[in-house]
Amino acid sequence: MNKVVSKILMIFSFVVLASAFAPQTVDCDDEAFLDECAGQIAGYKFLKANKISISGAKSGQAVELSSVFSNGSTYTLTACGGGTNMIVTLFDRNRKQIMSNYNKNTKKFYPSINYKCTATGVYYFKYEFEGGGAGCGVGIIGFKQN
Amino acid sequence: MKKLLVLSLGVSLFGCVSDSNVDPLAELTKTQMKEQVQKAEVVMSDEEFYAHVQAIPTPLQTTALIQALGIEYNESILKNPDGAENVTSWFGQAANLGVFGADMGYANIYGETKKSMDYIGSIRDLADKLKVGQFFDFATIKELAENKDNLEKLINSSQMNFQKMNNYLQKQDRGKVSVAMILGGWVEGLHICCQISSKNPNQQPLYESIGQQKLALETIGTLLNLYGTDKYFVEYKKDFDKLVEAYTNVQIIYHEGEVTQHEDAQGNLVVEDTSTSEIKVTQADVVNISVAVGRMRNNLINLQ
């Protein structure tokens, strides 16, 4: 009986210890993560922080959010993924693609993308994760007057 | 065997302590929970709600434009920061938190950090009453306000704190508090722009800034309808409908262009868009909008 208890405890200890020392994933819900990502918009004024979370069940999907951009302002968009590369694509009011922080042809990620707005309107941001997987992150939008 | 047991329990306990999954509703009073915790009456997923809230323009864009036009700072159009302690209704607290946030943003943009600190005091009072004060980092804001070289950091930290309060409210199913706060800020931003515009009638960009708020009306209307049986939202909606009416003649016309992109020498992506927009708004429209938003604002700032 003692041997059985001992074995159970050993297995339990192993599982607990393994999880305690496993690599930590970033908690995108933690407000400190937001502060960290906001550092990427230096030179711009903070406009919005879009919190993005795509669960395993919804992987392959994207999150779409929007904001009003004004003619005469330049906007910067950053995509700060918690462990996985996050892709942000900007669309205009007609959902015509303007730019993305990821170039599919060259597989290059840009840390931030800047857009000089010439037409006031509603702009859409599509957030997704590299490879269409699950993930979490924050998309910060900053602006400055031209 | 004993050592193993102690180690197992120790690690388990350590795991429990480091878990930050604290009940976010623990500090709310029974009255606050009854009044403020409410799922929307119209069916809308949390994701859709978040998308609507995030789409509302922030007043900082308007106030930054006013400053960029070289127009002098005008304190007389702002709400007096005194008296926050007398606001007792949750709607009044949330809406005025938004109003003070917009006024603080306007003061910050102009480097009026002394005035900004007066607003911080009122924001602290209201945020604490709503139990979201823990997300407003008053110590850091105060430190940043003491040095004008930190202006950009001050502006950004203040905005971020409001975003954090909003995120928290939504997590607690207190979306209607979040909506009241955002709308308070939006109304104050529009009020500031209308007032400055009336004193600077030749500044066309201000007309356009007022006109472009038409793009937010549908989203705001949707958010107000979510809480259609709440007594505060019912009253607010009546004023809002008059504002929508004042926007009837405002038009936004687009001239479609082309988007081209290339990488510059530093490897940054450069995009050129030749699309343009034209916002048609007359002086009469601005007067009507100004009257309607002034009424809304008065009703908000006089709430107890």
List keywords for this structure.
heterodimer, A: 146 residues, Jelly Rolls, 4-stranded antiparallel β-sheet, 2 helices, 10 strands, B: 304 residues, mainly alpha, two-stranded antiparallel ribbon, 13 helices, 4 strands, globular, disordered N terminus
* Strand numbers in spatial order across the main sheet of chain A: 1-10-3-8
Strand order of the largest sheet of chain B: 1-4
Structure summary, number of beta strands of chain B: 4
Main beta sheet of chain B, described? 2 strands, antiparallel
Give the DSSP E fraction of chain A (strand runs of 2 or more residues).
35-45%
Number of strands of chain A: 10
The stretches of 5 or more residues of chain A where confidence is low (pLDDT under 50) are: 15-24
- Radius of gyration over C-alpha positions of chain B, nearest whole angstrom: 22 Å
* Count of domains of chain B: 1
Distance between the termini of chain A: 77 Å
CATH C-level class of chain A: Mainly Beta
Fraction of residues in H or I helices of chain B: 55-70%
Oligomer: heterodimer
Provide the CATH architecture of chain A.
Sandwich
Mean pLDDT of chain A: 84
How many domain regions of chain A? 1
Distance between the termini of chain B: 65 Å
